[in-house]
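Q: Could you fold this chain for me?
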Amino acid sequence: MPSNATLVAQRLQGDTGALDTLVARCRDRVLSLAFRMLGDACAAEDARQEAFLRVYTRLPLYDPAQSFSTWLMCLTARVCLNARRDWAAELRCLEQAAKSMPPTPTLEEYLYEREPRRTLQRLLMRLPAPQRAAVLLYSYEERPVAEVARALEGPVGTVRTWLYRRCKNLAAGWRSPRKHTS
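A: Sure. Below is the predicted structure, expressed as structure tokens.
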């Protein structure tokens, strides 16, 4: 079995199989170091790939006077340190973005905001069906009184009366809402 130095020399002379042998020989050690440095299996896999990519592109810079495995482990450690630095920068950006976003309302705030709508809905449901229809068509659909009267097949005067009563009944109910169990 050829030494790492021999395989490096063969790769530098153009033998592509030599690099495959080096990768197969060192991949578990590189992954182990990356995992210990990063603490995440997926990130360690990414770091291992990046380390071997750098071996491929920087092998001509390798000094044969030093151990190949030492050079490879130093290169892997630098890749992992860069990954951790990048994570920290990304985390700072995410935290900054989260701080600039409006806060998510708590459950109590959500329920408090929803309560007036629920009260209004309960008050509307207390109205007789024709009056409720008149209110919804006039107030929510913004239809003119004459069109509401045509839709409900009733006189315009009656619809105006229903809308007047709606104001009176809803205002009274809003000021003193009755306890309602639903």
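A (continued): The mean pLDDT is 84.
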